Amino acid sequence: MEELTVQALYTLEETIAAELFAGVGYPWEILGRITGFITKLGETLDKDRYEKKGDCIWIAKSAKVAPTANINGPVIIDEGAEIRHCAFIRGSAIVGRGAVVGNSTELKNVILFNNVQVPHYNYVGDSILGYRAHMGAGSITSNVKSDKKNVVVHMGDAGINTGLKKFGAMLGDGVEVGCNSVLNPGTVVGKNSNIYPLSSVRGVVPAKHIYKSQNEIVEKRQAEE
Is there a contact between 129 and 113 (Cβ–Cβ < 8 Å)? Predict the structure, then answer.
């Protein structure tokens, strides 16, 4: 299960939340600690670079936030990030440096690493998106199973019971998700992999692969990377 670890999926130098991952094996283990981490970290941020806006909301002075965006704490929006028209941040979210949260996109209990893009009609909940990950228009993370049981990460015939009832997706660095795709609860996508548009994804997609369908996941050729 090495490819499911924090080290295999993420470049920790590309997030203000690197400390949260210290000593953690699988990245979903930190989902229940995001809220407290933001509250603690926010109070230590450089006041010359970040402003505290309301209850547990810290926004970098270089970030662009549309006046129509709805932001609830605890939240940290890092330098150079852009929060566009009618974005809805429900809380417990870290938006990385240079990241884009777009029109009608909703975030809840998430970490977006630096330069992540969720720019058009996305829902991202109980998830972690790695450096330069991108979700196409209308793609979402589904974070609760229909039977409300604990989420299990399936990899081949093996499975890891996460003990979590809410768990969306773990996207490694450089992942590209096609438009109108659904990432079902417990999805893990390895670094630099691509998801075809209109996909329904569950389980593990290895690094440097293309997800065409549940039965067709192919390794990327060098020219495609």
Answer: yes
> Alpha-carbon torsion 38, 44, 50, 53, what sign?
positive
CATH of 2-224, one of 2.160.10.10, 3.30.565.10, 3.40.50.1820, 2.40.50.140: 2.160.10.10
Per-residue 3-state assignment (H helix, E strand, C coil) for the chain? CHHHCHHHHCCHHHCCCHHHHCCCCCHHHHHHHHHHHHHHHHCCCCCCCEEECCCCEEEECCCEECCCCEECCCEEECCCCEECCCCEECCCEEECCCCEEEECCEEEEEEECCCCEEEECCEEEEEEECCCCEECCCCEECCCCCCCCCCEEEECCEEEECCCCCCCEEECCCCEECCCCEECCCEEECCCCEECCCCEECCEECCCEEEEECCEEEECCHHHC
pLDDT tens-digit readout, 5-47: 999 999 999 999 999 999 999 999 999 999 999 999 999 999 9
Segment 97-106, tens digit of pLDDT: 999 999 999 9
Instruction: Report domain extents, the chain.
Output: 2-224
Q: Is 154 a catalytic residue?
A: no
Catalytic residue among 120, 134, 154, 209: 120
